[in-house]
Design goal:
The chain is built from eleven helices and 29 strands. The protein has 419 residues and is of the alpha/beta class. It folds into two domains: 281 residues, Spore Coat Polysaccharide Biosynthesis Protein SpsA, Chain A; 107 residues, UDP N-Acetylglucosamine Acyltransferase, domain 1 (3 Solenoid), CATH 2.160.10.10. The strands form six sheets. Strands 1, 4, 5, 6, 8, 9, 10, 11 and 12 form a nine-stranded mixed beta sheet that branches. Strands 17, 18, 20, 21, 23, 25, 27, 28 and 29 form a nine-stranded mixed beta sheet that branches. A five-stranded parallel beta sheet has the order 14-19-22-24-26, with no helix packed on it. The model has no long low-confidence stretch (mean pLDDT 95). One of its GO terms (molecular function) is ATP binding. It catalyses: alpha-D-glucose 1-phosphate + ATP + H(+) = ADP-alpha-D-glucose + diphosphate.
């Protein structure tokens, strides 16, 4: 990073919108917000945008929380408490209920920023980057900020390049050859194509760069509109497209890749299938996301645990794992694992067979269980002899089974079983 880009990052505050439930994850977000969901064996989803900010040289960060925020706040307090005020660093947790002169709930993404105007302005950042707290990716925000400054834009919108007809669920940019946004369409049936790439479209990542002073002036003007919906994607960005200069920033220009990563990686793990697949993909020989890249570390809260242990070496009762990731504190006792990802403190007992299992922290899997293509919520105790993944009708009756065959297992589901 050159000195000018570093200077721009130091003048910037990151504001992470981390209040969403993620309802398509169903029971997984009954007790936690989507940004607090576990990912990759050790991390939470929010660790990715926060790590991107820190690794980009941004050391002023605010995190707006809302739905089921306790586990998220606890994680931030435990894992992200290394910021030092004397080094001009800060991480502020901003619950929706703290601004008592407003309605307690954030009305939308733009309202979450507007309600914290005094806190943001107290730090005096020249620029602000608005981030979604619920996607998996590695990006150098400093490069995007520099693009914003050099282009003279009122707002710069981070975009991913996707096959055109897969963009129907996104906010999509119609741009000219200079990246100026000509139109911003939410979830279009016929997405506009990229210039020179008729089969691809630019979809919004929910990342926006503004000059702070301009942004608050604009939010105040928008608030005077009786039809204002308090949302960046639905209200603020379309207004700038009509009245000012909005510029698209393709993710490929600032994504971070190690020598092991062949293409830019960005995932929305907002469904049970997507969550399962993205975690299982990490067990590949050369995964598309390199978590072993020490040059762009993903910071998180690391519990103090003993190393993983594999025990028993008898025919049919051998503790072993193939193409799997096993976290600290796990004990694989006489069990076989194939393409599994186990979070901290998972215990598997003798004669159990696991294939395609994503087990969140402190799951217990008892003897003779046979599990395939499942996500197991934190702390679930799998009873002895349970079989999942072999009878679709039985699985759908007892658990939440997706159309693709992934089963989500929670403790209340286990408690209802007639065993």
């Amino acid at each position: 990073m050159d000195r000018e880009t570093q200077r721009l990052a130091q003048q910037t505050m990151a504001f992470v919108l981390a209040g969403g439930r993620g309802s398509r994850l169903y029971e997984l977000t009954d007790r936690r917000a989507k940004p607090a969901m576990y990912f990759g064996g050790k991390s939470r989803i929010i660790d990715f945008p926060l790590s991107n900010a820190v690794n980009s040289g941004i050391r002023r960060i605010g995190v707006a929380t809302q739905y089921k925020a306790h586990s998220l706040i606890r994680h931030l307090q435990r894992g992200w408490s290394f910021f030092r005020a004397e080094r001009n660093e800060s991480l502020d947790i901003l619950p929706a209920s703290q601004q008592l002169d407003n309605e307690n709930w954030y009305k939308g993404t733009a309202d979450a920023v507007a309600q914290n105007k005094d806190i943001i302005e107290g730090y005096g950042p020249k620029y602000i980057v608005i981030l979604a707290g619920d996607h998996i990716y590695k990006q150098d925000y400093a490069q995007m900020i520099r693009h914003h400054v050099e282009s003279g834009a009122d707002v710069t919108v981070g975009c991913i390049e996707v096959p055109r007809m897969e963009a129907t669920g996104f906010g999509v940019m119609k741009v000219d050859t200079e990246d100026k946004i000509l139109d911003f369409v939410e979830k279009p049936a016929d997405p506009p194509a990229m210039p020179g790439h008729p089969d691809h479209a630019l979809a919004s990542m929910g990342i926006y760069v503004f000059e702070t002073e301009y942004m608050f002036k604009l939010l105040a003007e928008c608030a005077a509109d009786p039809d204002y919906g308090h949302d960046f994607g639905g209200d603020v960005i379309p207004r700038i497209v009509r009245e000012g200069k909005a510029v698209a920033h393709p993710f490929s220009r600032s994504c971070v890749r190690s020598s092991m990563e062949k293409k830019a990686y960005w995932r929305d793990v907002g469904t049970v299938d997507a969550f399962w697949q993205a975690n299982i993909d990490l067990t590949d020989f050369t995964p598309e996301l390199d978590l072993y890249d020490n040059e762009w570390p993903i910071w998180t809260y690391s519990e103090l645990t003993a190393p993983a242990k594999f025990i028993h070496n008898e025919e049919g009762r051998r503790g072993h794992a193939v193409s799997s990731m096993v976290s600290g504190g796990c004990i694989i006792s006489g069990s076989s694992l194939d393409q599994c990802l186990l979070f901290t403190g998972v215990r598997t007992r003798s004669f159990s067979e696991l294939q395609g299992v994503v087990a969140l922290p402190y799951v217990e899997i008892n003897r003779n269980a046979r599990l395939s293509n499942v996500v197991i919520d934190r702390g679930v105790v799998i009873p002895q002899g349970l079989v999942v993944g072999e009878d679709p009708e039985e699985d759908a009756r007892r658990f939440r089974r997706t159309a693709s065959g992934t089963c989500l297992i929670t403790q209340p589901m286990i408690d209802k079983l007639d065993l």
